[in-house]
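We close this part of the discussion by returning to an individual protein. Part of our work consisted of pairing the sequence of a single chain with a tokenised description of its backbone. What the numbers capture is local backbone geometry rather than side-chain detail. The amino acid sequence and the backbone structure tokens for this protein are reproduced below.
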Amino acid sequence: MPHIACGDSTVRDFAIVTTTSTPVNQPALTNTLIDLSVTVSERLPGVWPSHRPFAREVTKTRPPYFTEALQIDEHTGTHFDAPAHFVEALPDARSTYGDRVDLRQLCGTCVVVPVPSDAGSAEPGRSPEITPQLIEAWEAAHGRLNPGEIVLLHSGWDRYYVEGPDGSRYVDNVLVSKDQPGWPAPDVPAMELLHQRGIRCVGTDAPSMGSSHDGAPVHLWGLSRGMLYIEGLTNLDRLPARGATFVFLPLKIEGSSGGPGRAVAWV
């Protein structure tokens, strides 16, 4: 019987799901593996506007094999922020960089907190705030957050992660032309509440944990306290409010500020 262990959780009998289709004659399984990662492509808006764009070059064609050289920013697509992204050093200096973070912090039981896409603001170029009150309202319905759980903020912003002109709504129309409102983002008091609850990893389906108009404060506050942020998730609507098992495994880049990786959840 196949199984995967992560921390205190062991997941058995899983099926991998990356699309909405279900194979005919697939046996009933206890757990389903949901891909929470966006696709990285030159045609998709997965790179911060001021960073180098994703690019690739075929360096070997068949025969006998095929391979490509990649240019990729550490914060491309689904990726995580290590403390070094905003913080020069932590008391435990080794854990500042992406290759030194404790991977156990990036996997465990997760909770999904829905966030209204407007969240009380619709100003062009500005992000509506995710406040402590929104998190406390979720707790009133689903129970208090437990230390060590991974909190995933589901705003549905990944609906803008598409090819073509419509993909400009994901980042460019917010940060470059500034003619559209930004993605919902937690304010510092919300991150303080999560930290008080013992939450050390927070994810979002938006391109950044920080607001579009001032992303530094929430990054500085959380990362300086050893929290980790996962940005650019997708498919959070396929997860239950709590109880799924979440795993994010980033590339192990020496001395990095974070890195892209693959996020999945067992439901």
